[in-house]
Amino acid sequence: MNNFQSFNIPGQARLPIVWRTPALIFLGLGCISLLLAEYTAPDNWKVLGFICITSLIYAFQVLQRELRDGAMRLITDPFLILIAAFSLYDLLGALLPVLGSDDQVYLALNWYPTTAQDAVYLTGINLIGLATLLLSASFFNGKSMDVFMRPFIVIFADLPIRLIFWLFAIIGSSISLHIFYIDISDNEIVNGSIRILSSLAMIAILIGIIYRGKGEKFLYIVAIFLTLIHSLSGFILMSKAAILSPFLVLMIAFYIRKQNAVILIITVVITSISLTFLMKPILDGRAILAVSPDKSISARLDILRQVYSADNNNINNDPGPGAWYRICYIGAQNAGVDFYNHDQGGNDIDNVGWVFLPRIFFKNKPVISNSGSDFNAKVTGSDTSSSSMGVFISGYYNLGWLGLFAVSIISAIILSLFSAFSRVVATYGAVILLPVAQIGSYIAFRVDGDFLNDYLGLFSMIMSPLLILILIVNFYRSIQ
Known about the structure:
This protein has a domain at 157-324. 71% of the residues lie in helices and 0% in strands. It is built from 22 helices and no strands. Helix 15 packs across helix 16. The model has no long low-confidence stretch (mean pLDDT 83).
């Protein structure tokens, strides 16, 4: 029995070929969207509603069918996460102009002027990008990739799970504490790779909940304690993501352990309610903190008490744009397409080569994470904030349709490699490599982000060195 079998996780992993049929259907929906866009009036939002709701229904059916393979599929298939995230940002988010309140619609459509015809066209582009990614992935030889990665991964198989749990919990929590104090002092920038290592604590939570065996109750309690501590630190930092991430990991772990789909529904409901509850106070708290000379923990707690006080009259009582507005990228996506069509597209192509070169060895490496702030400056005139248009539109923003297809195919390669890595990790019980395996799911979820930073950047930081090590191990074995 390997380590994954001791978790008693039901189900099986599958090769990416299973995504070929969904890819063709999403491609059809995308082509229909582009065709309908030609005949959509600027103020006829019903067409957008039809496309998004139809696509959402199909995406939900796909996820429901594929999840019948069990929790093992969820752990080993980042394409499931991709479709879920795409449904959230590019379908549900795009429905805001159709079903949202007048205030939300005004904010979403006036950040950059956008008509119903624009929105239908953008949805078509995104659907074609998703279809190209899934179709490309379905043609990769998953078995060959599994065989290629196996010699390296088996080296780490069957290490004691409890040892791995404590290793991840201690390292991840220690780094998180270090980052917490740096963020509190606000006088230093934390390296991205260090922040990634702090996520080991999230993997410890996952392991602690789903582990079955000697000492499982104690690990279970420690995992819940870690969840509370990390969420509390996120609350003090006034970061919605840091507050919710531990609870999301906890709920996913509960689902894997209990195999009850109701838990997933509860997770969505709790997350939605939490975002609504946290959104405005956290934004108000950040605004007060930005002009406050005191950034200490006690000062932050005082600010939080202030913004959550029912009788507070000093805080703007405007409820704010709401969570739905935060997942609606139509304005930014329309700006990206318009800029490229008017010869004002991005220049990420100039920085692609630099992504793979570590700054520690190349001191003159340019900053490659400022594409979002540069884009925001084009729209608003200010580069003090960053705006994202989504992975597929970021490809179009840089190279038009060629960029869209290139980004989709390269993203398929990236996710396919992580998928193969996850399958072999699960097959041979190399739990200590689980954090690397789950990076693929994180990358897939960032379909709302920027290709250069969120997909290619993380790939170069994590998978590129691993591929070199895998090649070395395979070469060594071949000469034995």
